[in-house]
Specification:
mainly alpha, 2 domains
Length: 166
């Protein structure tokens, strides 16, 4: 009976946490009381604002830093580029067709894996995906080096902590 109470307590806590998170997200959405659909652009802008604040960048500094930071953020969101898991599925975060070369190659590879494609086709799609991913990783490394050269050491440290720089 003791284990049963613990399990019921844990389940109850999880339900309360999920409900609280749902309520917080609905309130954050505002406008109309029911909340809005998830907006990746809005989320991206909030992230960019946090990066600016973390780097203690003035408005003048941010006009120079915003484009390089934005490029890095875009590159790291591509499947497989930053070493993270591919969380958004074949069609991206909002269900649209993939736009980047990495996303296109990933979608083609996933399609080949899901179908009865011959091994040679899967091997070719895998090579295409790796080539696109490696090119994006090289572009990311170059973008990070460019940004690193533009910032003061304290800003560099803040950008490392924010995950923008390595």
């Amino acid at each position: 009976m003791g284990k049963r109470c613990v399990v019921i307590g844990i389940v109850g806590a999880v339900v309360v946490a999920v409900a609280a998170l749902s309520l917080a997200l609905a309130q954050e959405g505002g406008e109309g009381g029911g909340g809005r659909r998830w907006d990746p652009e809005r989320m991206r802008q909030r992230y960019m604002d946090r990066v600016k604040e973390a780097a203690s960048a003035t408005d003048e500094e941010w006009t120079k830093l915003e484009d390089p930071v934005s490029k890095i953020v875009s590159l790291t969101m591509q499947p497989g580029v930053s070493g993270g898991m591919r969380l958004w599925g074949r069609r991206g975060m909002r269900g649209e067709e993939p736009q980047t070369e990495v996303a296109k190659a990933a979608a083609e590879l996933q399609s080949a894996v899901d179908s009865t494609s011959p091994a040679e086709e899967i091997t070719a799609k895998l090579a295409s995906y790796r080539a696109a991913r490696d090119a994006a990783r090289a572009e990311l490394a170059a973008a990070r080096e460019t940004l690193k050269a533009m910032v003061a050491p304290k800003q560099e440290a803040a950008l490392v902590l924010a995950g923008v720089l390595d």
